[in-house]
Each structure stands twice: as C-alpha cells, then as structure tokens.
Amino acid sequence: MDIKIREDEIKLAKERTIEFDKIKTFNKFPCKNNYIGLLGEIVFNRYLTENKIEHEWIEFVKKGYKSPDFIINGKTFDLKTTKSSVMWFQKPIYDVYIYAQVNDDIDILTIHGWVTKESLLKMIESDELEIVTRKEFNRTDYIIRPEKMVSHWFNIILGVD
Length: 161
What we know:
Number of domains: 1
Helix content: 25-40%
Shape: globular
C-alpha cells in the first residue's frame, strides 16, 4: 500500500525532530535522516484519520520509550519507518509492528507488512533473523525481511473491509 507524502508533513517532521533533538538527553546513534520515523507516523496518522479508522496516535515526544506509536482496537502498534528494504527492530514489546518504507524522493510511504510481537519473539528464539550488534552504542537490532511479514494487513489487523 502506498500513501502520498505531503510537503507540509515533511516540513513538520523536520521541525519537530529539530525541537526534540534540542531537549533529548540520549542519542541512539548518529543519523542524518532521523526525521523519517516521525514522518511515517504523521503520514500514517493522516491515513487512518482520512479513512475514519478509530485510533490513538501517541505523538512523537512520548512519555518514555515504552509508549507505542498507535493504539488501534485496543492493540499497541509500533510503526517502523525507514529508507531500508528491511525492518529493523529491538526486542519486541508492542502487539504489532508495521514496516513502512520511504522512497528516495521522500514522496511515497509504502506499507510493506506487519508482524505480531509473538511471531517476532519466535523468530528471534529460532535464530531466523539477522542480528546486528553495535557495541559502541550497547545496542542489538534484529532485521526482518518483508517476505516474513503479513502483507494483506488492514482487513486483518485493523478490522477494516
């Protein structure tokens, strides 16, 4: 599924990221396009709103790192937006993870699929996923490819026909 990105959404994501960078006390690691995650949330929130899908967006400056991005039908969602062709994540704590990709022109957000926390935990346990360790940042990430995700997701996970 492709969602058109608006110029005002890019501007807003960049502005809010600059504001947040001024007050945050911890950098995960250096990143030139760290506004992409927020941009995904802004665009996805608009999509849900325009399609009258009842949801709560837990906006960018959260009450802590344990807050999900969205709550839909009582389930917690983490939207992972990247320019990468795979989804990167750390130990799963939310009910559902959605993989979104921004194209090189940053004008289209493509939703590639979703996967549950339980499925991710099983894949981690069975060594099905690639692991990337960044010792200098004391961080371990997992990588999942879209083929291992559910691609027909709205009608299943959101209850939308």
